[in-house]
Structures are given as C-alpha cells and as structure tokens.
Amino acid sequence: MKCIFSLSFLSIALFFSSCTESTTTEPKDESTNETQEQSLEPARITIEETSKPVLFDFTSTGCPGCGSWGGPTFESIIDTEKNNIVPMAVHIKYGDNMITEVSEAIAENRTGQYFTPQLWVNNKNGVLLSGGRINGTGSLNQLNTEIDAVQTASPEVFAGVSLSSNETKVAIRYKTKTVNDLQGEYFVGVYLMENGINDRQSGNPNGSKDHNHVIRASNNGGFGTPISTEDLTASSESEEIIEFEMEDDWKMKNLYASIIVWKKLDVNYFVVNANNNLLF
Predict the structure, then answer these.
(1) Within a domain: residue 57?
(2) Does 185 reside within a domain?
(3) 31 part of a folded domain
(4) Residue from 273, 101, 91 nearest 200 by CA
(5) What pLDDT sits at residue 39?
C-alpha cells in the first residue's frame, strides 16, 4: 500500500508539472514591430554623373488624343531610351483620378498653349501642330532631337535617389552633388511614383489601360525644397531621407522614386538634371 501511494503521489506531481510547462508561454517581443519600422532605410547612393532629361507627358484619362497618340508615343520613347531618361506622366483635366496638387503645379509651369496631349523634354514642348492637328512624325523627331541635346550637355548638378518601403511607410533617400559654384535659386523635388495603375482611357481601343510613371506624392509641392547656399558651392554633396505614409490605394511593389533639380527664374522653374531608381 505504501508503495502504491508513493507512485500515485509521484504521478499527480508529474501531471501538474506537465500542465504547468505546457501552459507557460514565452513573453512577447514588443520591440519586433518597432525594429521593423526602424529598419526602413533606403540604400546608400552612388551619384551617377550623367545628364538625364525629363520626358513629361501632360495627359488625362478623359482626353482621346492622349489615348490614341500621346500615351503610345510616350511609352515608345521610354522603351527606346529606357534608363537614359526620367519619364513623368502629369495628369490634369477632365476629372482624372490621378490628378494631384503636384501634377497641377507642374502643368501650370508650362509656357504657351496648355492643350493635351503634350510631350515635353525638360522645359521644351516637343509637340508640333500642322493645321491645328498634331504632326506625329515631326513631333517625334523634335522630341528625339531635344533628348539628344540634353543627354550630351554638361549639367550643373548631379542627383540620385533610392527607395525602401513596408506596409505602412515609404522612405526615399536622395542625394545631390554640385559641379561648380552656382548662383540663383535651386530646388530639389523628390517624387514618389507608381506604375501599373489601371484606369479608364479615352481614345484607347480597350477603354482602359495600365497607367505608368504617375506622380503620387512629393517632398514639397511641385518643385520641392530650396537647396541651401552652402550646398551650391563646387563639389558639395547633400543627402537626406524623407518618409511618406503608405496610402491604401498604392501598390508597394509598383512604387519607385524620381528626383528633379530645378532652377527658378522669375516665376518659372527649369529642369537642371534628373534621375530615378527605376531600372528597365
């Protein structure tokens, strides 16, 4: 009897010990999410000493000519030039869902006629009209001539960007390098861009299409923030990181960043140089 009691007592003790071990959980690491947030840091930038023109497509989903000529020509030039230009679709007019305050500000920076579609290289309109209609061949030749001229020029400033993102934030690192001492007002605009936004398109045979190189946000309006005086001296470099809160309709995998250095003359802003982190 004594032996049986001892075994029973031991069994009960082991039972409670087992239950205690199985219900014990490891303390939660409350710092996990915080660590993930802190690790959102874009890659370091090695400045490309190149001159890249910005190809602006002033467009709208409600513009028939944008769907039949403007958009296809824009995409054709991008396909040819690939990483040698910085494409930017500037959505305006007709209740377009991709209109932003940034796109409207850049559109207002144009001179001359404001019709759509218009394709510009930096601050020059490349669209030629014949009898009130777009001269497709002449416009394409004009655009290619302007692109070549910018690519062979010696820019005053070089620039670069990198991007990192998670479910809640987007971080963009941007860097500029001045070639010579500069005089005047210079600004650096950093733009969060998105590809693959499916929306309607008047003039497109399918009625809708994927819209690429769409401006989602910027560091400060249409033209960014002023470059400080000390950063306008020869060989000076400036590097910063900015963050954006992720919006519900942005697709993280389709986001990239562009940078444009502008020079302000009177009331207008002129492209000095540009770059992006998109690789074709």
Answers:
(1) yes
(2) yes
(3) no
(4) 91
(5) 66
Would residue 10 count as lying in a domain?
no
**Domain ranges, residue 174:** 44-276
Number of structural domains the chain divides into:
1
Per-residue confidence (pLDDT) for residue 243, from 0 to 100: 97
Token pair for residue 16?
Answer: 């409670």
Cα(253)–Cα(256) distance, integer angstroms: 9
Q: Please state the three-class secondary structure of the chain as a single string.
A: CHHHHHHHHHHHHHHHHHHHHHHCCCCCCCCHHHHHHHCCCCCCCCCCCCCCCEEEEEECCCCHHHHHHHHHHHHHHHHHHHHHCEEEEEECCCCCCCCCHHHHHHHHCCCCCCCCCEEEECCEECCCEECCEECHHHHHHHHHHHHHHHHCCCCCEEEEEEEEECCCEEEEEEEEEECCCCCCEEEEEEEEEECCEEEECCCCCCCEEEECCEEEEECECECCEECCHHHHCCCCEEEEEEEEECCCCCCHHHEEEEEEEEEEECCEEEEEEEEECCCC
Q: pTM of the predicted model, to two decimals?
A: 0.86
Other beta carbons less than 10 A from residue 168's beta carbon: 12
Give Cα separations from 109 to 116, 118, 129 (angstroms).
Answer: 15, 13, 21
Q: Is the dihedral of CA 194, 200, 202, 207 positive or negative?
A: positive
> β-strand 54-59 against 86-91: which pairing, if any?
parallel
CATH code for the domain of 118: 2.60.40.10
User: What is the residue whose two structure tokens read 């820019």?
Assistant: 155
Q: How confident is the model at residue 40 (pLDDT cuts 50, 70, 90)?
A: confident
